[in-house]
């Protein structure tokens, strides 16, 4: 599992990138929604660095949180997962499934409702399953919020499903515009316990994306070839 087109870097390399950027008067912009630091000049980005999720970017420096809580949720039609990470340990993991796909067309009930309504018995069953599905997801997320003060919520969910998540009878413990709601920057395939453990490790690292200009600009710091990357399917 990886963030597409990025490579892992260590803290020393991260510091070297910052040092050179400040020396050359590059612009440093922090994207809170991606928990990402962008380095560039004159509206051209040279490097984007995905920061560890148990660190905060404050006053132009990275600050480690000795105690951190991160909650994850990933949703697609008929399948979902939630997970809770405390101090780099995955302490809870749950998978949700629902009968939401029309067998003949392979179309989710969410998409079907937009075109042909919900009058037939099968559609009503799938609609009820859809409602139960999102309610159960949000109930689990509320359990997390009740257990710990969540520092970041990580979400992997297509925008077409957002209304069903946020407008469910049981609402999530965060809003669409929550400042600590961060889009997961990678695909999740199986959402197994082992895969969520891998996600936990990935989120605690530094991941560097360089533009062509950035490769030249930071050449003296970063000279190793990028790791071979392969495209992963959605889970």
From TrEMBL:
<feature type="domain" description="VLRF1">
    <location>
        <begin position="66"/>
        <end position="205"/>
    </location>
</feature>
<protein>
    <recommendedName>
        <fullName>VLRF1 domain-containing protein</fullName>
    </recommendedName>
</protein>
<dbReference type="GO" id="GO:0005737">
    <property type="term" value="C:cytoplasm"/>
</dbReference>
<keyword id="KW-0378">Hydrolase</keyword>
<comment type="similarity">
    <text>Belongs to the ANKZF1/VMS1 family.</text>
</comment>
<dbReference type="Pfam" id="PF18826">
    <property type="entry name" value="bVLRF1"/>
</dbReference>
<dbReference type="GO" id="GO:0004519">
    <property type="term" value="F:endonuclease activity"/>
</dbReference>
<dbReference type="GO" id="GO:0036503">
    <property type="term" value="P:ERAD pathway"/>
</dbReference>
<keyword id="KW-0677">Repeat</keyword>
<keyword id="KW-0040">ANK repeat</keyword>
<keyword id="KW-0540">Nuclease</keyword>
<dbReference type="GO" id="GO:0016787">
    <property type="term" value="F:hydrolase activity"/>
</dbReference>
<keyword id="KW-0963">Cytoplasm</keyword>
<keyword id="KW-0255">Endonuclease</keyword>
<dbReference type="InterPro" id="IPR047139">
    <property type="entry name" value="ANKZ1/VMS1"/>
</dbReference>
<dbReference type="InterPro" id="IPR041175">
    <property type="entry name" value="VLRF1/Vms1"/>
</dbReference>
<keyword id="KW-0175">Coiled coil</keyword>
């Amino acid at each position: 599992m990886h963030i597409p087109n990025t490579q892992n870097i260590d803290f020393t390399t991260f510091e070297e990138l910052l040092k050179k950027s400040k020396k050359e008067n590059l612009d440093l912009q922090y994207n809170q929604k991606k928990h990402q630091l962008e380095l560039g000049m004159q509206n051209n980005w040279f490097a984007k660095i995905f920061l560890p999720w148990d660190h905060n970017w404050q006053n132009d420096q990275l600050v480690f949180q000795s105690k951190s809580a991160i909650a994850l949720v990933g949703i697609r039609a008929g399948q979902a997962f939630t997970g809770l990470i405390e101090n780099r340990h995955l302490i809870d993991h749950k998978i949700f499934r629902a009968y939401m796909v029309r067998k003949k067309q392979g179309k989710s009930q969410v998409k079907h409702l937009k075109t042909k309504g919900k009058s037939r018995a099968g559609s009503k069953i799938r609609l009820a399953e859809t409602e139960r599905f999102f309610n159960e997801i949000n109930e689990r997320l509320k359990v997390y919020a009740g257990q710990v003060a969540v520092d970041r919520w990580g979400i992997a969910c297509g925008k077409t499903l957002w209304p069903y998540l946020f407008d469910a009878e049981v609402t999530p413990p965060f809003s669409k515009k929550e400042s600590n709601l961060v889009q997961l920057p990678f695909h999740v395939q199986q959402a197994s316990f082992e895969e969520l453990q891998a996600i936990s490790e990935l989120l605690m690292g530094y991941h560097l994306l360089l533009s062509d200009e950035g490769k030249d600009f930071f050449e003296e710091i970063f000279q190793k070839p990028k790791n071979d990357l392969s495209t992963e399917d959605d889970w």
